[in-house]
Specification:
The structure holds two protein chains of two kinds. By secondary structure, chain A is an all-alpha fold. Helices cover 73% and strands 2% of the residues of chain A. Chain A has a two-stranded antiparallel sheet. In chain B, helix 2 (25-45) packs antiparallel against helix 3 (66-96). Classes of the chains: A mainly alpha, B mainly alpha.
Chain lengths: 503, 130
């Protein structure tokens, strides 16, 4: 049995523990260790994408308990892709933090690794209760990271975030418990098999459990009407933390994808396609509300937080269409939007270094390096709204092509309309930031080189995504067809046998 | 038995939700605790009520032991989260001077002119000395 699938969990876990042992004083060593671990995770994620590229599904039975009894980790194309997306965000965010933001809390680096542990685990696990545990790990790390710096507005933002997510966790347990009570299994592959033959009252109860899980994952993904926590908390978080949080809504989208394609997918008998009719209107409303929120955003980081909500709406619309082409387009858009919004969160942090958190409707001190920062902002903005020639444009075109004619009017008009609104919001923000400086000199002289490098790295990855769109899309199409054949996943998991003799 | 069990879960959930909606940190914390009790009872009930203890070699129908393991995990996580909530609530009360739990948006209060009262205007994300 290959031990590859557990490495993305073990590396951040051990690094996090080591960072705690190292103590808060040895900052330089902490930085080196954190960066080395994140780089290792990036290389590992690339390796895992290569390993799974031919359709191999690696199943890792923890403790050598054969499924469906033990906990399994499943590494398929989708999980490998999500690990790669995470690692690509994490490394620049950490690089940015080492430029100074990590000084404001003693355990920043340890918490950062534990957050990665939770995210990686959530992508890898093949067990519903284990998914809950990894959600809790990533959430408790995120509570502490959100408070990093401990300013009053972060504390104020953290309390509702905490309460909402704890309530969500309670619902998650109720949904999971109901499914377990019906089926006697928590293994997702086994559950998919169970749901495909469920009928009558069992199917109706399972549908109720599915809807409860839909609420939970919508809360994590920040779908309207459960989006209210996101702008306040992401807008208040320190820049590298907000950039890392860009992946967290995608954990919710990933869970929705598994729920709607694997458990309640096309092969699920009486409960097939349970969620799609609900996801579709929610997604459309999310796009509209997110665009309006972006117009009203008081600061650049809150504006980017609203952009994250718009992107979640776009992604879930892709899921709701439910064809392999739409799923492939969704995955492409997911890679793009995670990286670009993380870059914009970091850039908002750079700009805040000069402006000190002044709102967008007031002219602030002139920015340092206005040309460089302006170029980065311009690139990020046209990528995120989806103007040609960058990755957002390609993602939106792919998604619009994949929309069936019947639902096209709704999605096309909202997608294009929201693009226009976002152009207005971003160009208004940009013109205040770059063209309306007040006469005062720049207030701080913090070196920005490393922070700008981090932004540049993320944006150049997004640029590479646009340049390599064709081969990447072909890989994603293979991933999507694998997602749409849940029988592959189930048979790969359930055919695992215990290793004889203890390897 | 089932009826009593279901009713106690219902009462716990209702009380928990009521307290959550009070929107002050202490009632919210108690509400979350009650909610997690209800969830734990619910999970426990999913192993079926009324069976014998799940010990190998015992006679008769046994309850499912897996939900009991799940409840243990949920209790541990719930305990940690309650401790964290308490610490955060105390810190919030000390630093903000009030115990409102629904006060997340400093930008909505006041007029159109934005004034963030509580943070110095020049704070970057690494302010202060190294």
């Amino acid at each position: 049995m290959s031990h590859l699938p557990i490495l993305p969990i073990l590396i951040p876990l051990l690094t996090g523990a080591l960072l705690l042992l190292l103590g808060a004083r040895r900052r330089a060593r902490q930085r080196q260790l954190g960066l080395a671990a994140s780089l290792t995770q990036l290389l590992l994620a690339m390796l895992l994408v290569r390993v799974t590229a031919d359709g191999t599904q690696l199943v890792y039975a923890l403790g050598n308990w054969a499924p469906p009894f033990g906990i399994v980790l499943v590494l398929d194309r989708l999980a490998a892709l999500m690990l790669l997306v995470t690692a690509v965000v994490a490394l620049p965010a950490l690089l940015y933090a080492t430029a100074g933001a990590d000084r404001r809390g003693r355990y920043f680096h340890a918490l950062f690794q534990l957050q990665l542990l939770g995210v990686n685990g959530a992508f890898l696990t093949g067990d519903l209760f284990n998914l809950f545990v990894f959600f809790e790990i990533l959430l408790i790390a995120s509570y502490a990271l959100l408070l990093h710096g401990r300013t009053s507005h972060r504390i104020r933002a953290a309390i509702p975030y905490l309460v909402l997510n704890l309530t969500g966790s309670a619902l998650f347990l109720i949904g999971t418990g109901t499914l377990f009570g019906l089926s006697g299994t928590l293994n997702m592959a086994d559950l998919a098999v169970f749901l495909s033959v469920a009928e009558g009252d069992t199917a109706r109860l399972a549908a109720a459990a599915g809807m409860i899980l839909l609420i939970v994952f919508s809360l994590k993904a920040a779908l309207v009407p459960l989006h209210g926590w996101l702008p306040g908390s992401y807008g208040a978080a320190a820049a590298p933390v907000a950039a890392l949080f860009a992946i967290m809504t995608k954990v919710g989208v990933y869970a929705l994808l598994r729920l709607s394609m694997l458990l309640f997918g096309s092969e699920a008998g009486e409960v097939a396609q349970l969620l799609q009719p609900w996801l579709w209107p929610l997604a459309l409303v999310t796009i509209a509300v997110g665009a309006c929120g972006a117009l009203a955003a008081p600061t650049l980081s809150v504006l980017v937080a609203w952009l994250v909500i718009v992107s979640v709406g776009t992604l879930v619309a892709g899921l709701a269409i439910g064809t392999p082409e739409a799923t492939a387009a969704t995955l492409y858009y997911l890679m793009h939007t995670t990286w670009v919004s993380a870059a914009l969160f970091l850039l908002a942090g750079v700009i805040d270094q000069t402006r000190g958190g002044m709102p967008l409707n007031q002219p602030g001190p002139a920015l340092r390096y206005p040309r460089l920062i302006g170029t980065l902002f311009f690139l990020g903005a046209i990528a995120v709204v989806g103007l040609p020639p960058l990755s957002g444009f390609i993602g939106k075109v792919l998604l619009m092509q994949a929309t069936p004619p019947a639902s096209a009017p709704w999605l096309w008009s909202l997608l294009l309309g929201s693009t226009l609104v976002l152009i207005v919001a971003l160009s208004r923000a940009g013109s205040t930031l770059f063209w309306r400086p007040s006469l005062t000199a720049p207030v701080s002289a913090t070196p920005l080189a490393r922070r700008l490098t981090a932004v540049g790295l993320l944006l150049s990855v997004a640029l590479a995504l646009a340049l390599g769109a064709d081969p990447i899309y072909r890989t994603l199409a293979a991933t999507a067809s694998e997602i749409h054949t849940p029988a592959l996943y189930s048979s790969a998991v359930l055919s695992v046998t215990p290793v004889a003799g203890g390897e | 038995m089932e009826l009593l069990f279901a009713m106690s879960i219902g009462v716990l959930v209702a009380t928990g939700v009521y307290l959550l909606l009070r929107a002050h940190t202490f009632p919210v914390m108690v509400g979350l605790t009650l909610l997690s009790y209800a969830v734990n009872l619910f999970l426990f009930g999913m192993g079926r009520l009324g069976g014998a203890a799940p010990i190998i070699g015992g006679a008769g129908p046994m309850t499912d032991p897996v939900p009991q393991a799940l409840v243990l995990t949920a209790i541990v996580i719930g305990f940690a989260m309650t401790a964290f909530t308490a610490a955060l609530a105390l810190r919030g009360f000390g630093q903000l001077g009030h115990d409102r739990a629904d006060d997340s948006d400093p930008w909505q209060r006041g007029s159109r002119r934005y004034v963030r009262q509580d943070t110095p205007a020049t704070e970057g994300d690494d302010g202060g000395q190294p």
